[in-house]
Amino acid sequence: MRDLASSESPEQDRHGFPVRRGEIVALDLRDTTLTSAQAKGFAVIERTPLAALNSIVTRLSIPKNMDAATALATMRAIDADGAFDFTHYYAMQFATQGSGAGAKQSKIASRKGNLKIGMIDTGVTAHRVLNATSLQQRDFGDGKASSPTEHGTAIASLLARDGASQIYAANIFRGNSAKPFTSADAIVRALDWMVGQDVPVINISLAGPRNKILDKLISRAVGKGHVIVAAAGNGGPTAPPAYPAALPNVVAVTAVDRKLQVYRYANQGGYITVSAHGVDVAAAAPGGGIGSYSGTSFATPHIAAWLARCAKSVNSTTRSKCISALAKSAKDLGAPGKDEIYGLGYIS
Question: Which residues are the active-site ones (predicted)?
Fold first, then answer.
């Protein structure tokens, strides 16, 4: 994570996570707070209305010769009740190539369905396994360089396999193909688009630090009845919690192999909700072929589709019932009851 977004010369927060240099971000900034901030040398870079989430995100440039950490502390001193944070950077949940077992398949068996699912990931390219799927895409990157599409195309194919007939794909990544990255402001714009499209279940493939602005907006989306499903992370058993998966109102998914053994690079922790097959998964690959992939992000689409079969519309009561049903359907693995490796258990 520390060398993420190196092309944008980031600073670091106190935990060592990269943040955008020279700015902080505010949610629903009060006019009086802005006036006080401007008196201290802060200035508005951009104000982004999030119509579906009924919010405004404001990017503020910080005073000359002030670092981001000091700027954040200054804004919190001006308005102790305000919501401020850094513009954190986030990494894509890169997959590892599987053993090749999945790639031996010439096609992906699909399940009939009429599911509407959103995905916040890379872009998606045309592929034969998506021919019967209605795909709507929007780019929330910087518009200067195209990001790789392999991951997003593979995830879309897995959603389609499990019955997604409508996929809303938000491309939030930018940077070079070796290490694409995104930022908190791109994520919240993508989330607002999903909410505006009434997408019941949203699949997220990214990992990074906790961010107050992202926390609050995910909570608003969940409060409206949207189900957020996120990859638990591929940092390994000793890695810190990966966000947004580690938020209490997000369904965090880890990966297991065909023998129901946990993926060796999967994060572990009390935030893990359930596990699903995510090792040597057959998914769409570049050039129209089928590849073999492993990672927690390749387990997540199965859970997103499972929940979408239950939650066919955006509704808070339905959301709660469907998550409860998911928990009851889990096959206990590992230590009895919920544990830090498999969560509540395996969803077939």
Answer: 121, 151, 297
